[in-house]
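Practice problem 4.
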């Protein structure tokens, strides 16, 4: 009797394929979550380094934070450029989960001025604290003004650490999506991701990494809301929204910039205010 070669029947082959497809459907999301968790951890490490860089800079510059500048005959300066000597790495300026098509790189002329490597396509994907609603201030920068020499140079100096009520409770950097100025106020935080429809669509599934003025870093849950055709993001815990404020009790000029009542920096983004302003929170 001739030997029969062992082989799968068509039914058996289809069953095997179906099992593989089911396993893939189960495991691929798990693998994706594991990869994102690793990126989130790497991002948190970046935040830790940025927080320590800020704290060291403050100690070396009369307890005053870094500045931003534009205009005049010199290149625009983002505040993270003066921090470079304290971290010696431009790789920590990019979140591993950031979309490479978003955000702008730093200018070559500004990099050359501070001994920073030229961007060569690399981008800064975190945001500096300009306050809960950035145009009204309240964060880590002073008021903007123009110097007379060089003519037209606009500078915002960093605030002295003595003016920060609780450095351990004030944001410095966090995950951000800004495309032209890297800031992390609630109104610019989702600048280039206005198409999101739920919290989990934000970076790290809506859990942003942040660092604080005393140098420590942590991961925090953020939620988004829609208001006036734009999307905003705030910490999910109301009390954490005051962490944008160097002084939570300082009354800021919100009426001039946003048409809402002037009030203490630490209260402007309460749930009651957001609802009163017409905001609608996005689903999870």
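Answer key:
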């Amino acid at each position: 009797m001739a030997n029969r070669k062992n082989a799968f029947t068509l039914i058996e082959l289809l069953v095997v394929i179906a099992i593989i497809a089911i396993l893939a459907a189960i495991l691929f999301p798990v693998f994706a979550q594991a990869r994102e968790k690793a990126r989130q951890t790497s991002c948190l490490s970046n935040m830790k380094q940025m927080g320590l860089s800020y704290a060291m800079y403050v100690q070396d510059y009369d307890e005053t934070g870094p500045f931003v500048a534009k205009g005049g005959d010199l290149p625009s300066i983002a505040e993270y450029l003066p921090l470079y000597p304290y971290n010696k790495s431009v790789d920590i300026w990019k979140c591993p989960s950031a979309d490479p098509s978003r955000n702008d790189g730093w200018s070559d002329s500004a990099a050359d001025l501070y001994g920073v490597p030229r961007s060569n396509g690399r981008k800064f994907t975190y945001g500096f604290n300009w306050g809960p609603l950035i145009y009204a201030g309240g964060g880590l920068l002073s008021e903007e003004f123009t110097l007379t020499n060089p003519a037209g140079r606009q500078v915002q100096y960093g605030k002295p650490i003595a003016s920060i009520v609780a450095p351990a409770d004030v944001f410095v950097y966090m995950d951000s999506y800004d495309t032209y100025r890297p800031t992390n106020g609630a109104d610019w935080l989702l600048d280039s991701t206005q198409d999101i429809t739920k919290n989990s669509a934000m970076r790290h599934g809506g859990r942003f990494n942040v660092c604080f003025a005393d140098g420590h870093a942590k991961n925090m849950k953020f939620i988004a809301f829609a208001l006036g055709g734009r999307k905003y993001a705030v910490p999910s815990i109301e009390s954490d929204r005051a962490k944008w404020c160097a002084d939570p009790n300082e009354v800021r000029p919100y009426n001039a910039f946003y048409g809402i009542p002037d009030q203490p920096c630490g209260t402007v983004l309460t749930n009651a205010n957001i609802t009163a302003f017409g905001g609608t929170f996005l689903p999870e």
